[in-house]
Amino acid sequence: SSSGDRADQSNLTDDSATAALQQQIDQMRKALAERGMMPPDPAAIRAATQSILAPATTSMDKLSALRLLRAADARSDEVVLAMVTVYENESDPRIRADVFRQLDGVKTPELRDPLLQAVAEEEVPDVREEAAETLAHFLPDDHVREWLEYLRDNDPNEGVRDQAIRSLMRSE
What we know:
single chain, mainly alpha, 9 helices
């Protein structure tokens, strides 16, 4: 009987070691996918999307999920709208800037106005700079062009002015 107990304990130990190793592998794959070093699998894309859409997910966890979706070019309109809500409700300017950074390249029409509002009203230059970069994808929209030209000529921050120039050049 005691040899059977030892075998059961050994199997439990093997099972928990295997589970721990699998968890480490999954975390490594996720990190590599977030960095664009390997494509995320469809299950990871679904999980990231669900994480962003879940109200209880923290802003940091939503950003992590968004990085994975950006690497997979899998940012749906629904995800974009959820991340605009994160931007609007977040007090940390680093997170607000990163939301726009991770949405760069997205052309969801509902993103345009929050980006314009950010370049007009944001106090933090990094947020304005990321918004100006992401706005480039909405050119040749006349209103977007006017705001980028305004930033180029009037923003008090050199980085924002330079980004406005780069964004305007992308459309030429």
